[in-house]
Amino acid sequence: MHQISDDGLLAANATFYDALERGDFESMKRTWAHDGDVMCAHPGRVSVWGWPDVSESWRLIFESGGNPQIIITDERVVRRGSMGWVTVTENLISGGHTGAASAVNLFEYRDDHWMMVGHHAGAVIA
Amino acid sequence: MHQISDDGLLAANATFYDALERGDFESMKRTWAHDGDVMCAHPGRVSVWGWPDVSESWRLIFESGGNPQIIITDERVVRRGSMGWVTVTENLISGGHTGAASAVNLFEYRDDHWMMVGHHAGAVIA
Questions:
Q1: CB under 8 Å to A57, separation ≥6 — which residues?
Q2: What is the mean pLDDT of chain B?
Q3: Do A47 and B122 count as a contact with CB atoms less than 8 A apart?
Q4: Residue A66 in this model has a pLDDT that exceeds 80
Q5: Residue B1: its pLDDT value, please?
Q6: What is the mean pLDDT of residues B7-23?
Q7: Band of residue A65 on the pLDDT scale cut at 50, 70, 90
Q8: Closest Cα to residue B37, out of B25, B27, B52?
C-alpha cells in the first residue's frame, strides 16, 4: 500500500495521526506491527512494551475520550533501507486548551506496508 | 568496536550514558554519527535536527554543569539488521533531587561501530 519511499513513510505517519485524532482504535491497530517488541511512550509516562500492552494503552486513551485536534509541524523523515522514522511536533488543541509534544515515530517496511514499531512522545514545556 | 549484536548495541548505549553522566563532550561527540539527519529531543523541548544543532544542544547542557547521576532501568533492546534502538527509563539523581525520563536511543551500525542517530527523551510525571 505505502511504497518504500519517503512519501510512503509520510503517508503511514499521516495515517497514524488520523487514527489518533479520530480516536479510531481499529485504524490505530492496523497502523502497528503486532510484535512482542514494539514500544510506545505517551507524554509523561514510562514506555510500554509489546503489542498487548501498547494496544491496551491506546484503548484506554481512546476510551477516556476528548480527542484533541492535532496539528503536525516540524515534520522530518529519515529512511535507512526498510527502517524509517518521522520526527514531529504535535500541537494539540482541545476545548480551548493548547499544548505540544515532541514525538518520534518508528516504522518498518514489510509485506508492502510501513508498520509502526515505535512511538515515543514527550510533553514540550512552553 | 561494538559487534553487530544486542550486546554490542547495549555497549554503545552504555557508552552514551557514561558520556552523559560524566559531562564528557568529546566522548559524546564520538558516540554520534555526524550526519545532517540525526535528531535529538531533550525533556520538555522540541527536537533539534542535524549534527551541528544536536552537538550544540549537548555542549550547552554540559556547560550548564550539575551532571546528575543516571540510573538506567527498564532497558529493552531491538535490532533490525544494521538498525537498533534501546528504550530505557533514566532515573536522575542530582543534589538530593530525583526525577525520571523515558528515552529511546536509535543507533545505526556502520564501519564496525554502532553510531547514535537519534535520542528522544521525555520527562516522566511522578
A1: A40, A42, A48
A2: 94
A3: no
A4: no
A5: 58
A6: 96
A7: confident
A8: B52
Asked if residues B104 and A41 have their Cβ atoms less than 8 Å apart, the reply is yes
Distances (CA, A) of B83 to A39, A75, B4, B35, B80: 15, 21, 9, 15, 5
Mention every residue, 6+ apart, whose C-beta is less than 8 A from residue B7.
none
Q: Closest Cα to residue B120, out of B3, B39, B1? A: B39
CA distances to A11, A66, B24, B62 from A114, rounded to whole Å, are 9, 28, 38, 37
Mean pLDDT of chain A: 94
Shortest CB distance from B85 goes to which of A81, A106, A123? A106
Q: Which residue of B has its CA nearest to A36?
A: B78
- 0.90 cut: is pTM over it? yes
Q: Give the count of beta carbons closer than 10 Å to the beta carbon of residue B72.
A: 15
Q: Does any CB of chain B come closer than 8 Å to the CB of residue A118?
A: yes
The yes-or-no verdict on residue B42 having pLDDT over 90 is: yes
- SS3 string, chain B, reads CCCCCHHHHHHHHHHHHHHHHHCCHHHHHHHECCCCCCEEECCECCCEECHHHHHHHHHHHHHCCCCCEEEEEEEEEEEECCEEEEEEEEEEEECCEEEEEEEEEEEEEECCEEEEEEEEEEEECC
Residues 6 or more apart in contact with residue B34 via CB below 8 angstroms: B51, B55
Would an 8 Å CB–CB cutoff place B36 in contact with chain A?
no
Q: Report the DSSP beta bridge partners of residue A82.
A: none
pLDDT of B47 above 70: yes
